[in-house]
Design a protein that fits this description.
This protein has about 400 residues and is mainly alpha-helical. About 65% of the residues lie in helices and about 5% in strands. The protein is built from 14 helices and 4 strands. It has helices at about 1-20, 20-40, 65-80, 90-100, 110-115, 135-160, 165-175, 195-225, 230-235, 240-270, 275-300, 305-320, 340-355, 365-390, and strands at about 50-60, 80-85, 105-110, 125-130. A 4-stranded mixed beta sheet has the order 2-1-3-4, sandwiched between helices. Strand 1 (about 50-60), helix 3 and strand 2 form a beta-alpha-beta unit. The longest helix has about 30 residues, at about 195-225. The chain is elongated. The two termini are about 25 Å apart.
Length: about 400
C-alpha cells in the first residue's frame, strides 16, 4: 500500500506537470530555440576546414611579385585552403569583392620588385569584403607573413654587407634556409572541446533545466495552502515518502526534458553528445543535482512567491557562472567559481566524453554532481519536512 500510494502521488504530479504550459516553454521551447539561435549566430566548428576565395592583381610582373603568387598563394590553393582568381586590374578585383564573388584580393602594385630591390618601402594591399571578416583576417596574415619573410631575408643579406655580385646569391641562400623555430600542432592530442552545436545545445539544456525543476518544487507551497499536504500526511506514506514522491516526479520531468532535447538537437542541428552510456549517466546525475539544488533553495522560503524568486536568481547565477551560455574564458577571474556549479561539471563531462574514453572519463564529473544532488536533497527534505509538521 505504501509503494502504491507513492506511485499514485508521482503519477498525479506528472499529470499536473504535463498540463503546465510554462513547464513546456522552459523545458523544451526556450532551450531548443536559444540553442538554435546561438549556434546560428556564434557557431563555427573549430575543426572545420577553412576555405576562402581570393583574387590577386599583379601589376608588377617582377620576380618578387611572381614569388608571392607562385610560392605563397598557389601552394595554398593546391592544398585546398583557398580558391585563387587572377584579375587584370584593381577595378575588376574591387567589383568582384563588392559583388561577393571573392572574399579578398591582393593588390601587388607596379614597381613592387624594383622598389624592394632598391630598398624603398612598398605596399602590398589587401582589399577585403566586409561580410567575410574571418577570410579577410587570414588574407592579412598571409600578406604579413610574406612581408616578414622578405624582411628576414633582406636583413640577413644586409648584415653580411655583400657586393652587388654576391647580393643575389646571398638572398637566395637566405630564402632557402630553414626557419630556426617551427611551430607544429600536436595532432595526436585529444580534442577536448565541444563543437558549437553540442556546446550550445548542452549549455541551454542545463541552463533551463533548473528553471524546469522549479514548478515541481514550488508546488509544495500551493498544496500546503490548499490543505493537500495535510491530507497526505494522514495517508500510509511517511513524511519522507511524501517529499520523496514530489522530488521523484520533478526528476522524471527533468529526465524526459533532457532526453527530448538531446534527441532533437542531435538530429536537427548536428549536436554530438558522445558515448550514449556516458551521456546517460551524466544526464541522470545532472538532473538529480538540479532538482536537489532547487529543492534546497525553495526549502528556505516561506511561500510560493518567495521560493520562485529565490530559485530564479540562483538558477540564473549558476547558469551564467557555469558557462552554460558563453565560454568560461569570458568570465575572467570569476572562471574559478564555475566549479561550484553543476553546469560546469556537466559540460566538462561532455568534453571529456569527446576524447572517446567512454564512461570512465566522466567518473569525476558524475561524482561531483551526485554529491551536489545528495547535499541539496538532504537539506530540502529536512527543511521541507516542516511543511507537514510545522
Amino acid at each position: 500500500m505504501t509503494m502504491r500510494a507513492f506511485l499514485t502521488m508521482v503519477g498525479k504530479d506528472l499529470r499536473q506537470r504535463s498540463r503546465d504550459g510554462t513547464l513546456i516553454v522552459f523545458a523544451l521551447v526556450l532551450p531548443l530555440g536559444l540553442a538554435f539561435l546561438l549556434n546560428m549566430l556564434l557557431g563555427g566548428d573549430p575543426e572545420e576546414d577553412f576555405s576562402a576565395r581570393y583574387g590577386v592583381v599583379d601589376a608588377d610582373g617582377g620576380e618578387l611579385a611572381s614569388m608571392f603568387v607562385e610560392d605563397v598563394l598557389e601552394p595554398l590553393e593546391g592544398e585546398g585552403i583557398l580558391e585563387l582568381r587572377t584579375f587584370a586590374s584593381e577595378e575588376e578585383a574591387r567589383e568582384s569583392v563588392e559583388a561577393g564573388e571573392i572574399d579578398a584580393a591582393f593588390l601587388v602594385p607596379d614597381g613592387f620588385t624594383d622598389d624592394l630591390h632598391n630598398g624603398d618601402s612598398v605596399e602590398l594591399r589587401v582589399l577585403g569584403d566586409v561580410d567575410s571578416p574571418d577570410e579577410v583576417q587570414v588574407a592579412d596574415g598571409v600578406a604579413e607573413a610574406f612581408a616578414a619573410e622578405y624582411h628576414r631575408v633582406e636583413l640577413a643579406v644586409t648584415t653580411a654587407e655583400p657586393s652587388e655580385e654576391e647580393r643575389a646569391e646571398l638572398a637566395l641562400r637566405a630564402a632557402e634556409a630553414p626557419a630556426a623555430v617551427r611551430v607544429v600542432e600536436d595532432t595526436d592530442a585529444d580534442w577536448r572541446q565541444l563543437d558549437s552545436p553540442t556546446y550550445y545545445a548542452a549549455g541551454t539544456a542545463v541552463f533551463f533545466l533548473l528553471f524546469a525543476a522549479m514548478p515541481g518544487v514550488v508546488s509544495l507551497f500551493e498544496e500546503r495552502r490548499t490543505g493537500t499536504l495535510v491530507r497526505l500526511s494522514a495517508s500510509p506514506v511517511s513524511t519522507l515518502g511524501i517529499l520523496a514522491a514530489k522530488l521523484a516526479s520533478t526528476v522524471l520531468v527533468g529526465l524526459v526534458s533532457m532526453v527530448i532535447l538531446i534527441t532533437v538537437s542531435t538530429f536537427s542541428f548536428g549536436a554530438e553528445w558522445g558515448d550514449p552510456l556516458g551521456v546517460t549517466v551524466l544526464t541522470v546525475a545532472m538532473v538529480l543535482a538540479a532538482v536537489g539544488i532547487m529543492s534546497a533553495v525553495a526549502g528556505f522560503a516561506t511561500n510560493a512567491e518567495q521560493a520562485s524568486s529565490w530559485a530564479t536568481v540562483v538558477a540564473m547565477l549558476l547558469g551564467l557562472l557555469g558557462g552554460a551560455l558563453f565560454p568560461l574564458a569570458n568570465l575572467g577571474g570569476l572562471a574559478d567559481l564555475s566549479y561550484l556549479t553543476p553546469h560546469q561539471w556537466f559540460l566538462r563531462g561532455l568534453s571529456d566524453l569527446s576524447t572517446g574514453d567512454g564512461l570512465g572519463s566522466v567518473l569525476l564529473p558524475v561524482g561531483v554532481l551526485l554529491a551536489m544532488a545528495l547535499a541539496g536533497a538532504s537539506v530540502a527534505l529536512y527543511r521541507m519536512g516542516r511543511m507537514l509538521h510545522p
